[in-house]
Amino acid sequence: MYETLRKHIEKQITLTDEEFDFVQHHFKSRKYKRHQFIIQEGEMVKYSYFIISGLTKLVYQEESGKSHIISFAMEDWWESDFNAFLTQQPASFSLECIEDTEVLYISLADYKTICSQLQKIASFFLEKAHFGNIAAQRRILSLLTSNAKARYEQLLKQYPSLFQRVPKSLLAAYLGVSRETLSRLAG
Amino acid sequence: MYETLRKHIEKQITLTDEEFDFVQHHFKSRKYKRHQFIIQEGEMVKYSYFIISGLTKLVYQEESGKSHIISFAMEDWWESDFNAFLTQQPASFSLECIEDTEVLYISLADYKTICSQLQKIASFFLEKAHFGNIAAQRRILSLLTSNAKARYEQLLKQYPSLFQRVPKSLLAAYLGVSRETLSRLAG
């Protein structure tokens, strides 16, 4: 399990055994069942999560009850309500498991410790953050271009495995289209 | 001008004169007139920009000619086509000046140099990247909730100064609503 984390980090940087040992000691692991919550809206967000296996959705629920999916995350991805995590405030989003999910998690204090004591890890997370930003920019663009068909095809191309694993109703909530529109696009 | 950059950095971290000197020597400055392009779509993106004064829009143009505004940036903000900058590819977006704009800019090689040689600067940019991610997440949410009125009010609350400085047609392109809808909301 920690090997998965090491492989993930070593796609970008190389760590000695001692350095990886130092890093991994700041993480803990936990398993969740399908439908369980990793983060519940309104609760303090103490951790950032690295997904070892499984699939999650980060959800925002309007007061009216309508739900929106901010992002999906699966093995090899980092996920949290990052605003709440970094500012140590209650969650605005909930993080729910679509499949049985196993995670490694780290507290903000430990995250700051490994970044300040190991320059290479700070670089690693800086690059992750940059590419998170790029993905978000792409998503914004995709929502602005307001063409449901193009949005659907872009997602299909970027993350083909999502289409096997995610129920159609959730894909529709992610794309910001109705279930009926999605069926038409997928047909 | 470099004092503005120093003040901006020192909101988060403290630098000695020697350290700031090291940092500032990796930046250059340039002035642009209103309507000039800092980045043109299709050209290589060599730099990331720190805005000293002025106001810019990051624009995506569809093949049909329809334009979408990804983001506005003004004094004290960092802006670029970050995907193109970080992967050293041609720009998908253009960065245009809405007002006369003065920037400091840094190349990717120099950015990597200052981050790897000065741990505190890597931490500074990591925090910037995190909060860029949070802002993007908020924008995604605002586009998903698909309520033009709420979107307008959120923007007004977050960036009141934009409303004095940005023409209504550009605000509409940012919010993803028609000029007519915006007039109705602002009325």
TrEMBL record, chains A, B:
Species of the source: Pedobacter psychrotolerans
GO molecular function: DNA binding
DNA-binding found in the keyword field: yes
Keywords: DNA-binding
SUPFAM superfamilies to which the protein is assigned, alphabetical: cAMP-binding domain-like
Stretches assigned to the Cyclic nucleotide-binding domain: 15-114
Pfam (any one): cNMP_binding
Name of this chain's protein: CRP-like cAMP-binding protein
Residue ranges of the TM segments: none
